[in-house]
Amino acid sequence: MTLIAGDGIGPEVTHAATEVVAAAGIDISWDAQIAGAAAVQAGLDPIPQELIRSIRANRVALKGPLATRVGKVGFRSVNVALRKTFDLYANLRPIRNLRGIKSAFKGVDLIVVRENTEDVYAGIEHQVAPGVVETVKVITARASHRIAEFAFQYAQQHGRRTVTAIHKANIMKLSDGLFLTCAQRVARRHPRVQYREMIVDNACMQLVLQPGQFDVLLLENLYGDIVSDLCAGLVGGLGVVPGANLGRRYAIFEAVHGTAPDIAGKDIANPIAVILSAALMLRHLGEAAAAARIESAVEGVVAAGRHRTPDLGGRSSTSAVTEAIVRRL
Ligand code: ATP
Fold this sequence. Notes:
Blueprint: E1 2-4, H1 10-23, E2 31-33, H2 36-41, H3 49-58, E3 60-63, H4 78-85, E4 90-96, E5 109-115, E6 125-129, E7 132-135, H5 141-157, E8 162-167, H6 175-188, E9 194-199, H7 200-209, E10 216-219, H8 221-234, E11 244-246, E12 251-253, H9 272-284, H10 288-304, H11 318-328
Parallel strand pairs: 1-2, 1-3, 3-12, 5-10, 8-9, 8-10
Antiparallel strand pairs: 4-5, 4-11, 6-7, 11-12
Helix pairs in contact: 1-9, 1-11, 5-6, 7-8, 9-10, 10-11
Residues 9, 13, 65, 68, 238-239, 257-260, 262-263, 269-270, 273, 311 line the site of adenosine-5'-triphosphate (ATP).
């Protein structure tokens, strides 16, 4: 499998994930590749050819977060570029409580399905006149259909009852309107799954009032980004939420969180989000038993309460939490 350690806290947490996978008894030969800031520092492209070759050959990668410079025009997000290169159109983020983690709600069990290839992430921005800029939001029927199809198929295969499409079609009548029309068309093909629609601002309020009313959330790229972090907050924060970027041929597994430069290099980042992303990867590879062992070891360590990183109110280091999970495995 390809392994991208990533920037910021990436190397610390991806290292933790590889140790945990090994302790689960899965012998993976990792093909370590650099990208993002690390690649630029080594005089390479942010997405080096070698990395592209590696993912093409392996088809599956585990990835740490990659840094994107805020506000620098012309510097496209490396994360976005990777998703485009491999047409990883679906971003899947399971959000659920881990036993023992303090959070406002119990029993949260949501699946965020985020469209991954277009919307304002197309990066089309220009200045019309000094002091006037435009950012173009791109929504296509093709991408909207296939992400809706992904959400409904996921719901059907995993015994989920409802898909809620989240939108702002009252304001963006054309773009979000098209997204909804496509979702409605796909919903008609899946009569066993209930279909609902909700305006994004109301959805945010409903999520923090009563998350239990939601099941699978279907979102465009930007709403998906924002609502994912909101949902992470419902279950204890970014340190515990895994993710998968999935396409027809390729899959890249990564946590929802970014590079967290404020805590990088201090051995205090929570490795659980990337460890659970590695468990999602093992499921994808058909190693469901090992994935379940990892999930249960993580839950066991969290519930025991002795080894927790500071984001979960503890004082343990990344390596101590990792060791505890490895011991349990
Ligand atoms: P990016 O732009 O790279 O997505 P971001 O601005 O969304 O990054 P993050 O890097 O995800 O931000 O970090 C947001 C906050 O959450 C920071 O305070 C960070 O320290 C914290 N955080 C993120 N990931 C973790 C983690 N694994 N463990 C502990 N804290 C984390």
